[in-house]
């Protein structure tokens, strides 16, 4: 019997969160291996973890005898090997729209406000995070005018939605005024109650602090 997949994750890491949603959507049972990003200078920077992901970032997913890294390629792998409950639209134009929204978040917003970047910015960190998220959301709000239905791309939950929800959490963490982005807010509210999104939420993880 194939062994159970293991997800190396941190409760409020956006990239881990995206993969958690995909795993649950696709009905994949997995073990959760917490990697604390802050404690003792970060477990992700220790050699033991870097043997799984040389970039020292979460997530890493051990599945099918492979150790996979980078959230979007992981999600694409799950899509290709477990096509049920697809997270990419069939139609190529919509597929490109979903990937574009995911990529705006994955490379255009999130890395500019992740832990490593903010640690390097010192006093400027809150203002910088606020600016990059606001600029990115302004662009996304426009992109969504031509792609959205109930969710980011039509009425199907896609890879774009998997990226949007953790980014909205970061927006609230940095007090971004969401009233300027009514389409993003509407989509966020439609996604939040879906079971895979509840299961993946930062509040519901084994390593979520019990505050
Ligand atoms: O303050 C902490 O708890 C440390 C790390 C994070 O939240 C995760 C990030 O770096 C942001 C993100 O993944 O979007």
Automatic annotation (TrEMBL):
Q: Does the keyword Transferase apply?
A: yes
Keywords of the record, alphabetical order, are:
Cytoplasm, Isomerase, Phenylalanine catabolism, Transferase, Tyrosine catabolism
The prosthetic group or cofactor this protein requires is: glutathione
GO MF entries: glutathione transferase activity; maleylacetoacetate isomerase activity
Record-annotated GST N-terminal domain positions: 3-86
- Record's subcellular location: Cytoplasm
Q: Which processes are annotated in GO (biological process)?
A: glutathione metabolic process; L-phenylalanine catabolic process; L-tyrosine catabolic process
Q: Which reaction does it catalyse?
A: RX + glutathione = an S-substituted glutathione + a halide anion + H(+); 4-maleylacetoacetate = 4-fumarylacetoacetate
Q: Which Pfam families match?
A: GST_C_3, GST_N_3
Domain named GST C-terminal: residues:
91-210
Give, as in the UniProt entry, the pathway in which the protein acts: Amino-acid degradation; L-phenylalanine degradation; acetoacetate and fumarate from L-phenylalanine: step 5/6
Looking at the record's lineage, which domain of life comes first? Eukaryota
Q: Which GO terms describe its cellular component?
A: mitochondrion
Give the principal location in a single coarse category.
cytoplasm
Indicate whether Isomerase appears among the record's keywords: yes
PANTHER family named among the record's database cross-references: MALEYLACETOACETATE ISOMERASE
The Swiss-Prot or TrEMBL record describes its family as follows: Belongs to the GST superfamily. Zeta family.
- Name of the featured protein: Maleylacetoacetate isomerase
